[in-house]
Amino acid sequence: MCRRALSVPGMMMNTIPVETLQAWLAAGRPVTVLDVRPAAEREEWAIPGSLHADAYDALWAGDTAALAGVTLPAGAPVVTVCGEGKTSLLAAEQLRQRSIVAYSLAGGMRAWSLAWNAAEIGLQRSAARIVQVRRTGKGCLSYLIGSAGEAAVIDPSLDPKIYVELASEQGWRITAVLDTHVHADHLSRAQALAAQTGATLYLPAQAHVQYSFSPLSDGGEVVIGQARLVAVHTPGHTEESTSYWLDEEALFTGDTLFLNGVGRPDLHTGVAQARPAAQALYRSLQRISALPLETLILPAHSAEPAAFDGRPLVATLSEVQMHTTLLHLGETAFVTDVLTRIPPAPPNFEQIIALNQAGILPNDPTLLEAGANRCAVA
Fold first, then answer.
1. In what order do the strands lie in the sheet with 227-233?
2. pTM, two decimal places
3. Would you say residue 57 has pLDDT above 50?
4. Nearest alpha carbon to residue 320 among 341, 299, 342
5. Between the chain's N and C termini, which has fewer beta carbons within 10 Å?
6. What is the pLDDT of residue 214?
7. DSSP of 17-53, one letter per residue?
8. DSSP-assigned letter for residue 82
């Protein structure tokens, strides 16, 4: 939905940028986020902990009581949110007329798609440490792995400077950047990050991308300080999809296996040709299932926005098997169920695939990336 922005004196002065709201939430500062989008839009992606008032139509109709029935916690400022930061201006103005301290989130959920937070993942045996970097507004999970002063980044989906700063805070220098596959729901920052840091760019061996990289075939290794990543070819979501096994303790599964679902096999093949990919996915999941049950599973996406709570999104292989019924099916039933459950395709996925293959990163990626990821079949 799109409406012409109203011109209300002083309203543009009462906005806050994404970075401010992100900092407030990360610091645990009292703040109420009020989402005023239609319910259907909110169902797909929302800010963790936000309240909801389906007030879009009433606000644009000029209903001065559009938010009259909304109960808000006392004492905390309110940040109103909509799709692009226009309707939320109207909502914030109504709240201010009730003497409530209220701001509109500049750029709305489209801008929020770049918001992020981080959580550290504890390891028992590995010499490495892992920081999970969660692009909460998009559900993307990337990983900073450090050991003995060196670091690797897997599936970067945020501005390269964020990973550089996080590594610097830990005393690490980024020496390797890896993607698990050619992504379809977000623009990869892997090439840009490698170029900025001088790190080696590793991708699964394939002929789809049009820029230089160091190919990793099944069993290939990347050394990070005293730690080691081993490539495990796990095709199905895409032909080249590869998981990375860190010191036989943690497995970065990309979009092959999630915490409660599996990768969809159709985005690079089309639904009509997805059956062979689903069969390959079944075999890949069988290979992963044969790993030690205490293996930590670290996917590239989450179905839910990552809260600002410092708690990593991770589970053991045993726990993932417990919560993912598809992993207990035989091949025929698995393929049938996966193909039946495929969700709608992510917005702009064909353009995103083409740009990722070409290694092109637009100046404003949010134009293409807005919306939740839809890479999983649950």
1. 221-224, 227-233, 242-246, 250-254, 296-299, 315-316
2. 0.94
3. yes
4. 299
5. N
6. 98
7. -HHHHHHHHHHT---EEEE-S-HHHHHH---TT-EE-
8. -
